Amino acid sequence: MYKLRSYQQQAVDSTLSYFRKKRLPAVIVLPTGAGKSLVIAELAKIAKGRVLVLAHVKELVEQNHLKYESYGLEAGIYSAGLNQKDSTQKVIFGSIQSVANAEDSFFQDFTLLVIDECHRVGLEPDSQYAQVIKRLKLNNQKIAILGLTATPYRLGLGWIYNFSHRGELKTREMRFFKHCVYELPLEYMIKNKYLTPPVKVDIPVTSYDFSELTEGSGSYTMAQLEEVLKQQRRLTPLIIKNIVDITESYQRQGVMIFSSTVNHAQEVMQSLPEGQARLVLGNTEDSERDQIIEAFKNKEFKYLVNVSVLTTGFDAVHVDVIAILRPTESVSLYQQIIGRGLRLDTNKKDCLVLDYTGMGHNIYTPEVGEKKPSRESVPVEVACPECGFVNDFWGIVDEMGKIVEHFGRKCRGAIQKPETYEFTPCGYRFRYKICDQCGSENDITARECCRCGYTLIDPDTKLKQAKLSKDAHVLTPDSIEMLERSDKNGNPYLQVKYYDYDARYLSEMHYLNNATALKKFDINFLRSHLRTPEQRVPIRSVDDVLKIQPHLRMPSFVIARKQGKFWKITEKIFAEELGR
């Protein structure tokens, strides 16, 4: 009989603890190669009623079933693709397509539903998953629903669940899965030698430039991707030659190449050694795909090229080179791709990761959730000053790794009641804008006040209105200067000058000579200008401000309005406020 690893047992225990108190759908996040089939097997074995294990491809159905029965356990398969439709066993491994078309009698007596690669489950009421779950609940309203995935973050959607087991609010938006009850980082698996170490090779010759696709605010289309690749077509033969040279020089056994589009994959194939490469596409017929994969596993050819079809549900343990020729903004998907080469195998010491996208993902970094704000941004850990929760945000670090600036807006921490699994979000805001009506703090992108509903004018509209007004002046700062001045009565004050590229400037003044003035300065200036706004900086004089000037940032725009003969700064707009 099999023996669970410690983390697998923790995953099982966490699941049991959760379902004893809650029956909302839950998720386990395990990296590729962590042995989720063992977790499934243990939960299925100890379940009191019948268990249905669903997957979206027949390869996963067969893989999970074979692993389950290899432990001396018995189970059935319900999959047209595998030519089996057993509905009598206590444990059934099924494909979602076949189960969705099953007779009503099939859905009797199930107490646990397990969904492999559960990031595919959405909220669409007419999806096959939704229809199957609805039919299962007609027979048992309290059925426990558990999803397993290595990629809990989907581009275009975000996190697939609401609350993390470590007390983090991932999203307030509606999700089918409510709680992540257990999560294991990829780094743990590699550090403890459960997976082959990846060795990332810095760009050996060249890389594609996908910056015009990934640095904008929106997602890119397949047509845009095709156009970028068309412009850089001359690079493909150079890149493939580099892959082949490295493979031969280091005597590698199996290479998986992840290309961007079908046309791109066909270009890649033209440059690979004849007879040593095969291509798998989304429309490759099942029988041909099975034959190609089997031949690759038997090492009959060395280079397997694919377009978005072998990122999950595929294992060839001898793979020791992963070549990435497609852009992705998702760290989870990036890690999933690399995971194809991390399975342990005899005489396999490491897996080379050749990244030709120039995107600079780190194999071990967490998925932050927001779009990367700049090329130099890296994931940073920022503790909330209110609840102490350590947030993963994008940020800038110095040469010593110390955080210089971060781009977090709101604490994701939440207080959980262990007995009920109920979460109360922290709600602390690192960045915010104040409602003019009620004084409440709002998200910097909010269009109406979260408390009173007052319409908040967005920064883009403010800019447009100011540029059209004769009584307003918009300045784009290039530099900032801070000076200590004195008024005619000898009272010191801080003068802040914002200069544009033509050395024109707008200025503001701040007195810091009493408690009220210091509080106004903190609210009106310091909180928005600090690169790390959660810092508590003791300011008692102008000199104190001058000392911390390196820790202050410039706004993207300064708006001033005419007051008599002078211009008075009325608004400052920072980069994160702009919907661009």
Automatic annotation (TrEMBL):
Domain Helicase C-terminal residues, every copy: 242-386
InterPro entries with a match to the protein in the record: Helicase/UvrB_N, Helicase_ATP-bd, Helicase_C-like, Helicase_Restrict-Modif_Enz, P-loop_NTPase, Ribosomal_zn-bd
Q: What's an example GO cellular component term for this entry?
A: cytosol
> Which SMART domains does the record associate with it?
DEXDc, HELICc
Sections of the chain in a coiled coil: none
Indicate the segments forming the Helicase ATP-binding domain, all copies: 17-170
The terms under GO molecular function for this entry are: ATP binding; DNA binding; helicase activity; hydrolase activity
What Pfam family is a match, any one?
Helicase_C
Protein name (record)? DEAD/DEAH box helicase
The organism's superkingdom is given as Bacteria
Q: Which GO terms describe its biological process?
A: translation
User: Which UniProt keywords are present, listed alphabetically?
Assistant: ATP-binding, Helicase, Hydrolase, Nucleotide-binding
**CDD domains per the record?**
DEXHc_RE
